[in-house]
Design the sequence.
């Protein structure tokens, strides 16, 4: 009997192996339209001067980067045929694919690469990505030599996906402010596999195949329609009905559990490790009551992270005790976690001089949230802090830009936020704490206005060496200090999933999730 | 030979009350409304509880763990939210109706009484507000100035007053030509007194009916705005409960259904009372 089962298992395995081989052997089919969801209207479509996945998902179709990454964190050639990092880490030579053209037919040259790096360096909110770049030399049309002031461990990641869009110098070099360039939203001249047909705010982004794309035989799809659907339930229903074929960054635990049961849908969370999304409560550390570290610590003790994980996230994700994603090699699990302790919280507030009034309340605070998925957490904070005598007002914003403006101009006390690590701490983590990155008007800069000389120093050290162990040491110390001073209270990473219809072959699973070129996707 | 007793003359209000009393649907509506208002006023005393407090696991179905109506997505007790929300919803209804009537009467009375250029200007303004799509206009107001309770009430009031203004104006146009108004004018009664002491009381019946119905539609309006996400997370109103539980409608439909039923019953009750008032106060309908 046992033998029979063994044979059966073996047979099943064999059949499924054959089946998977036959699927793999399937020739990609040309043509078809991929319908995809965007959760927000992008400000515009040029990732060179705008962060965020709303811009990144269409942006990586429109613009190619130098490198791309597979799901195993290995860099792959893309617009760069090959690259070489010198032994001292100060020179990176990039050889471009020959014959690549922009959507207007003009060739993509090393001049454009140099221009793109300069533009990103000057305008992109992630200042640390190319900060050590001193110059980009262009010995010939297909070679770019990047000169660095110090070894820059994040450079290769910073040259991939939406972080370094290669934009045409002959379009964006016309002297206009690239952040407000009219061709960020219409008549986009890109370098990627798809070109823009139409971008209608709050409606859709329609893209079609660029026949002159530099990778032969790609892209497979004729067209991508990215529909802007803000409502989670609406996206779930559209995915279930087959009206939508792909949606990335899905994170509603209930919808995910529901869709996992659907035989037509593939729900997976591979690919978001590099995005590294961490949810936290950010504090204004400069103005108001939250400028007192004791108040911030008290708030952290009063917020029950475990309740949030169990009741609101339904166990789909674990805790994140620091602002570095738990999946990162630099994550320090040993820091103070601020598990629920109302006694400690009350004592901290008493010590800070905020005694309870006759009604049991001490003072008022407000908490913001930027988009609907964040609302339940903000709403949770209200009753949670009432228990320690803080009367919290939940402040809603009409839309994402309104929230972004409030937070980036430091017009807030607390806010729910969700910030991405973007692969390497140098790119996505330093910006949150670096005192030199307090930039009014720039969302996801150091909007907490936090400043600590030692933290700045540790980040400088960790960002200037390619030695992994040394970097780990610096980041571990940094996380201890941050857990003590709490410019923000980290809660948990987002349970991002890509949901795709089983018709969709090669659904994106690279470390950048759906913020990566879909040139290899095809429809069965 | 017996003499038929002569019917004693009754006050118009007694007459109207008599009419209303005979209208069973209206009386049922009034009783229902009374119960709802009573629940809102006394409820928190009988069933104390902070509507914002998370009492149990989220999405505990009705009846389980001792929570009669279950809990919402944060584990807040729906029954205590519903009771607390009754006050807010009815307050929004009353405040918006008051605002509507206040603006409507002012505009309508001035236009109807003075006529001429004043009427032209005021009625063009009224028409301007009338042709704006109400939901869209109120959404713009709320989106621009923030989703706070006063702002939502203001938005509802601002989009709803033209109907009252038009009714008031037409009543004024009719009544100002009547003999007793002319007589009062001949006695030297000031314009102000003519408008608000002589004409207005006689113009009130249709306005009262409109105001009563307005309370119901304001509650509905607030629920509509909430459903679209334009809601103040710092209050609990029925509409707000629906609005914030909407993402979970597929998994826990009761969180939306229960406040929905509350709104339905309240608006139904108000409509029945309004219709009853209309029948009772409008002499032309009494023969039915």
Sequence:
């Amino acid at each position: 009997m046992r033998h029979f089962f063994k044979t059966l298992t073996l047979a099943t395995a064999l059949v499924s192996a054959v089946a998977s081989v036959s699927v793999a052997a399937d020739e990609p089919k040309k043509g078809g339209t991929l319908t995809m969801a965007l959760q927000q209207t992008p400000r515009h479509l040029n990732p060179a001067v705008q962060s965020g996945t709303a811009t990144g998902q269409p942006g990586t179709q429109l613009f190619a980067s130098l490198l791309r990454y597979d799901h195993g964190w290995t860099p792959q050639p893309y617009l760069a045929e090959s690259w070489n990092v010198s032994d001292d880490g100060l020179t990176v030579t990039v050889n471009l694919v020959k014959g690549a053209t922009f959507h207007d037919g003009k060739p993509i040259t090393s001049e454009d690469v140099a221009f793109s790096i300069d533009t990103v360096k000057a305008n992109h909110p992630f200042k640390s990505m190319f900060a050590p770049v001193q110059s980009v030399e262009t010995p010939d049309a297909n070679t770019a030599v990047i000169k660095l002031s110090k070894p820059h461990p994040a450079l290769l990641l910073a040259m991939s996906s939406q972080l370094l869009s290669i934009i045409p110098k002959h379009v964006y070099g016309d002297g206009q402010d690239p952040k407000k360039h009219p061709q960020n939203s219409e008549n986009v001249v890109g370098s990627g596999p798809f070109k823009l047909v139409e971008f209608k705010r709050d409606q859709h982004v329609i893209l079609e195949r660029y026949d002159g794309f530099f990778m032969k035989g790609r892209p497979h799809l004729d067209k991508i329609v990215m529909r802007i659907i803000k409502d989670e339930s609406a996206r779930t229903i559209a995915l279930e009905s087959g009206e939508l074929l792909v949606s990335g960054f899905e994170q509603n635990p209930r919808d995910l559990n529901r869709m996992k049961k659907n035989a037509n849908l593939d729900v997976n969370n591979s690919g978001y490790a590099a995005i590294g999304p961490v949810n936290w409560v950010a504090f204004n550390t400069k103005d108001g009551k939250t400028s007192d570290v004791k108040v911030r610590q008290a708030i952290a003790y009063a917020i029950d992270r475990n309740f949030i994980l169990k009741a609101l996230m339904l166990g789909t994700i674990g805790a994140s005790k620091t602002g570095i994603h738990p999946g990162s090699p630099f994550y320090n699990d040993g820091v103070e976690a601020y598990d629920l302790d109302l006694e400690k919280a009350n004592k901290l507030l008493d010590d800070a001089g905020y005694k309870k009034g006759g009604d049991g309340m001490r003072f008022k605070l407000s908490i913001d949230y930027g988009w609907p998925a964040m609302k339940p957490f903000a709403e949770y904070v209200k009753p949670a802090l009432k228990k320690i005598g803080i009367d919290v007002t939940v402040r809603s914003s009409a839309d994402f830009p309104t929230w972004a403006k409030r937070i980036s101009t430091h017009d807030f006390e607390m806010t729910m936020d969700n910030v991405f690590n973007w692969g390497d701490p140098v790119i996505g983590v330093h910006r949150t704490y670096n005192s030199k990155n307090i930039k009014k008007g720039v969302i996801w800069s150091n909007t907490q206005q936090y400043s600590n000389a030692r933290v700045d120093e540790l980040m400088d050290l960790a960002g200037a060496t390619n030695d992994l162990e040394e970097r780990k040491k610096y980041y571990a110390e940094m996380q201890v200090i941050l857990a003590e001073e709490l410019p923000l209270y980290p809660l948990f990473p987002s349970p991002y999933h890509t949901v795709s219809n089983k018709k969709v072959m090669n659904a994106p699973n690279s470390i950048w999730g759906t913020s990566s070129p879909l040139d290899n996707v095809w429809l069965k | 030979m017996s003499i038929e007793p002569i019917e004693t003359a009754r006050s118009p209000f007694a007459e109207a009350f008599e009419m209303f009393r005979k209208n069973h649907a209206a009386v049922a509506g009034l009783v229902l409304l009374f119960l709802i208002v009573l629940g809102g006023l006394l409820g928190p005393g009988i069933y104390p509880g902070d509507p914002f407090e998370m009492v149990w696991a989220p999405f505990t179905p009705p009846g389980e763990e001792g929570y009669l109506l279950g809990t919402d997505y944060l584990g807040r007790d729906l029954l205590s939210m519903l009771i607390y929300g009754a006050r807010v919803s009815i307050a929004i209804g009353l405040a918006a109706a008051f605002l509507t009537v206040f603006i409507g009467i002012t505009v309508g009375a001035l236009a109807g009484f003075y006529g001429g250029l004043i009427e032209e200007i005021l009625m063009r303004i009224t028409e301007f507000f009338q042709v704006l799509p109400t939901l869209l206009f109120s959404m713009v107001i709320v989106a621009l100035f923030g989703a706070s309770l006063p702002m939502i009430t203001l938005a509802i009031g601002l989009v709803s007053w033209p109907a009252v203004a038009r009714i008031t104006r037409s009543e004024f146009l009719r009544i100002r030509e009547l003999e007793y108004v002319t007589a009062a004018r001949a006695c030297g009664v000031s314009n102000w007194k003519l408008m608000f002491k002589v004409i207005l009381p006689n113009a009130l019946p249709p306005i009262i009916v409109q105001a009563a119905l307005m309370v119901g539609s304001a509650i509905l309006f607030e629920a509509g705005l909430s459903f679209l996400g334009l809601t103040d997370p710092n209050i609990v109103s029925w509409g707000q409960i629906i609005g914030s539980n909407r993402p979970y409608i597929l998994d826990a439909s009761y969180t939306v259904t229960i406040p929905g039923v509350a709104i339905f019953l309240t608006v139904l009750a108000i409509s029945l009372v309004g219709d009853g008032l209309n029948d009772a106060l409008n002499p032309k309908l009494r023969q039915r």
